[in-house]
Specification:
Helix content is 14%, strand content 14%. It is built from one helix and two strands. The longest helix is centred in the C-terminal third of the chain and has 10 residues, at 57-66.
């Protein structure tokens, strides 16, 4: 499957988040950051450099399972 053209913003270091009600912030701990794509029952974890993560089959299975649960249900 071809990758979508969506590209995440590059990370920046800032002393504090700027105040804006339409933005959500998260602390970046050591680890991996991935975009998750759900297409026709398939889950793909893609790095910001457009590389597929293949080391997390349990996480992909959990995402597949969770996608069948309705949010707010």
């Amino acid at each position: 499957m071809p990758l979508p053209t969506f590209q995440p913003l590059p990370l920046e270091r800032r002393p504090q988040p700027f105040p804006h009600p339409q933005w959500v912030y998260e602390i970046k701990y050591d680890g991996f950051r991935a975009l998750t794509y759900l297409e026709r029952g398939e889950v793909r974890l893609i790095s910001r450099n457009a590389n597929a993560f293949k080391s997390f089959p349990d996480l992909e299975a959990a995402i597949r399972k969770a996608r069948s649960v309705r949010a707010g249900a």
